[in-house]
Design a protein that fits this description.
It is a single chain. The protein is of the alpha+beta class and about 70 residues long. The chain has one domain (about 5-60): Winged helix-like DNA-binding domain superfamily/Winged helix DNA-binding domain (Arc Repressor Mutant, subunit A, Orthogonal Bundle), CATH 1.10.10.10. The chain is about 40% helix and about 10% strand. It has helices at about 5-15, 25-30, 35-45, and strands at about 50-55, 55-60. The longest helix has 13 residues, at about 35-45. Pfam families: MarR_2 (PF12802). This is HTH marR-type domain-containing protein. InterPro entries: HTH_MarR-typ, WH-like_DNA-bd_sf, WH_DNA-bd_sf.
């Protein structure tokens, strides 16, 4: 399922590069609501960029092309 990444998606993926996280932690760190982060995570799981480990934990599966270290979308 193709998914066009928005700024929030890119920030979430960047945060997941540093390890397993839950929506509450991501929301607090990125200044989004927990509900919004959860919604974006579900889309990222469907796009196969993120794995849902269960118990509210998510990990990065694959960093999308074009979201390398030089990306300015943080």
């Amino acid at each position: 399922m193709p998914h066009e990444l928005n700024r929030a998606d890119k920030r979430i993926l960047r945060a997941l590069e540093n390890g397993v996280r839950n929506p509450s932690w991501l929301a607090e760190q990125l200044d989004y609501s927990r509900q919004y982060v959860h919604q974006r995570l579900q889309l990222l799981v469907a796009a196969e960029y993120v794995n849902n480990l269960g118990h509210g934990l998510y990990e990065l599966e694959e960093l999308p092309n074009g979201l390398g270290q030089d990306s300015k979308d943080q």
